[in-house]
Amino acid sequence: MTGPLYRDPDAPVETRVRDLLGRMTLQEKVGQVNQRLYGWDAYERTSSGDHRLTDAFRAEVAAHDGMGALYGLQRADPWSGVGFADGITAAYGARVSDDVQRHVVEHTRLGVPVLFVEEVPHGHQALDGTVLPVNLAVGATWDPGLYEAAAEAAGAELRARGGHVALVSALDLVRDPRWGRAEECFGEDPHLAARFTQALVRGMRRADTAVVLKHFAGQGATVGGRNSAATELGPRELHEIHLAAARAGVRAGAAGVMAAYNELDGLPCVANHPLLTGLLRDQWGYDGIVMADGGAIDRLVRLTGDPVAAGAMALSAGCDLSLWDAAFPRLGEAVTSGLVPEATLDTAVARVLTLKFRLGLFEQPYTSGRPAHETPYPVRELSERIARAAVVLLEHDGDTLPLGPAARRIAVLGPGADSVPHQIGDYTAPQRPGTGITVLQGIRDAAPDGAEVTHAAGCALTGADLSALPEAVALAAAAEVAVLVLGGSSARDGDTAFDDNGAARVGSATPSGMTCGEGVDLAELTLPEGQLRLLDAVAATGTPVVVVLVQGRPHALPDLSRTAGAVLSAWYPGPWGGAAVADVLFGRAEPEGRLPVSVPRSAAQLPVFYNGKDHGYRGYVDQPASARHPFGHGLSYTTVSYDEPKLSRTSVSLDAPTLTCTVTVTNTGRRPVCETVQLYVRRMSGGSSWPRARELRGFARVRLAPGESAEAVFDIDADTLGSVTRDLSVGVEAGELLLETGPSSARTRGAALTVGP
């Protein structure tokens, strides 16, 4: 073909990148590693209802004769201030993205397309974007295949509106549930998070969507559960717990990772050369991009004293793409002053350009004319399926549920019973009026014909105001069953104050109904006083009580065995979660969810995760050290028995550690069940470090009719038996192990395995 080599679609990507990079000025290179502008500042709504590009956007493109990436073009929420009155709906998404892209391509010397980077925490955070249940609910399904389909559908929705890169939380773990971002995690366990991270990347890649995984690394272990605080992690803890999901995502083909805000051993992740280069690139062979979190590079000025030096520090560490900061735009000064070699900048630019070539943006920069990606299921259907599969039956007396035709008078109580905003979690765009099904509406739709369903809030979401309590108690006393919807909320509104990076600023001076979400950390994990008083008052009427927890973190629960006939956790189940909850309550669907995180008795006993070091410590004098409900726990409407696990071999060698572990499970009750059979490895002797109590290394979902038996078969290999060795690599070590199977981390039966030379 004629023309520049980088325009030749038949040339290798590496060749095209090298050719384009060789044509760039220093100014143009700097532009490619920056995403300075908030995307919603790139356009404005006209009086006719259309959109036009802003002078601020045009100036940003002109500043570096190009633009590396543009964040949040279609983002909408209270922080951005974008809503239906002035934002980009689904009808305009592709058109506006094409207008932005056309300006960049046609008004720059080299015509390099811009990457459109969008938040996809649980669905595209845009007007008319389909909302999925939050990640903690996804983790409760223990069904990576279902999530993979949802990720593919969400990626296709993003691409149809012009987006290229999805920012998705996947790498953080709930090691301290006081942390407000617990809802963004798949759970507390590295293996579970790794399985869902793989599913996320595979699904998005099928939709031709690039994924940047957040946050790298260890952000879920910040001190005191406080957002963006330090992490006091030793190298082994970091490798054993907090890097497994990142390794899985890199292997699956993630396009990028986002460097976390936290510091490791005194060095912020965005400036951590051993992490971003030594581990990620040199050891793992990763060739994708590293993106900074919002404004993170500017925070380095505290170390360097100067924004130019701060940018040089992050670039030298291995950060390729900025986010909103003032330091990276000055990388030209860093190069000319000798703070960083231009070759280091070239390496970062090459990674950004490689992603653009791999996405085909030089051949097809515009959404119009690109064929739509077809997925097997629409996103809304998958959202409902996840919500249904995520419901965890925590406690049950064996009689109260499922509700049957005899339930003629049902009182639905609680501050979250009739609120879609309380169901959808943080990082969510405004919803159109009428979108979604609350728990109250779901119960009304599912109740038998002629049944009376009454409702009262009973109390406020937070605080101890009991003025609404008498009405709720009266309705409960007149009912045959009372369903209490308790928990928390991550709903932002126009009165919420925000930090510069979009985190909520909640405190005594900024009252808010939020009890969870970014920036909303708790010291106490108990339910608010008003909700506990409501629960006690309703239970005192003698009416059977069902508690439904709508929550973004595991709240510390009192002993409810004498208070409630059943306790369920629905997490933040998304807009249509009310229908999913009702399906489980009435037995239209069996409870399938399993806990992805341990439920504490109180915040005082933290940490309570199941896979701590096995030192044989006792409980406290005043309460046990064990969780109220352990990781992996979840009841059903039937009973299931487990036989002893059987191994195909009782000893294996280090160079051929392969065998099978088989366990027979039987439905001994009268209703069907989807049983999640869990496989744990427990080291009894040997190894290079003190062992953990047990570690999840596999799981299988088995559907059983009443009376039916089936075998769950696990293929055991080096990945299953591997552990972090003395040099912090992952390998199989000699010693005595137990391979344990069971329905939760606290109910296992084991078979001994010897691993030898």
Automatic annotation (TrEMBL):
Coiled-coil region(s): none
Pfam families the UniProt entry points to: Fn3-like, Glyco_hydro_3, Glyco_hydro_3_C
Keywords: Hydrolase
Database matches in SUPFAM superfamilies: (Trans)glycosidases, Beta-D-glucan exohydrolase, C-terminal domain
Record has Hydrolase as a keyword: yes
Keyword Hydrolase: yes
GO molecular function: hydrolase activity
Chain ranges of the Fibronectin type III-like domain: 675-745
Protein name: Glycoside hydrolase family 3 C-terminal domain-containing protein
